[in-house]
């Protein structure tokens, strides 16, 4: 833990941003990993919204306009 604290004091604001997250993925830094999490979270919410919109269309809108009939 001492080495980590020393490195954090020396690097300041740059601490953790330019170091690779995993040694076997040298191009994946903490900034890129955080950005990936943000984008994938937003994409997941969009996917949930689209799924709900499709369900509402299939369940309510389509039968209301006579486009199809639901099975009993």
How does this structure look, described?
The protein has 72 residues and is mainly alpha-helical. The protein has a domain of 48 residues. 62% of the residues lie in helices and 11% in strands. The chain has 2 helices and 2 strands. It has a two-stranded antiparallel ribbon with strand order 1-2. The protein is rod-shaped, with a radius of gyration of 24 Å.
Task: Summarize the helices and strands and which ones pair or pack.
Blueprint: H1 2-11, E1 20-22, E2 25-29, H2 30-64
Antiparallel strand pairs: 1-2
Shape: rod-shaped
**Sheet/helix structural class:** mainly alpha
Biggest beta-sheet profile: 2 strands, antiparallel
Give the termini distance in whole angstroms: 64 Å
Strand content: 5-15%
The helical percent reads: 55-70%
Oligomer: single chain
Residue-averaged pLDDT? 85
According to DSSP, the number of beta strands is: 2
**SSE arrangement, N to C:** HEEH
Low-confidence stretches: none
Strand order of the largest sheet: 1-2
Radius of gyration: 24 Å
Number of helical elements: 2
Transmembrane segments: 43-68
Protein name: DUF2839 domain-containing protein
Organism: Pseudanabaena biceps PCC 7429
Pfam families: DUF2839
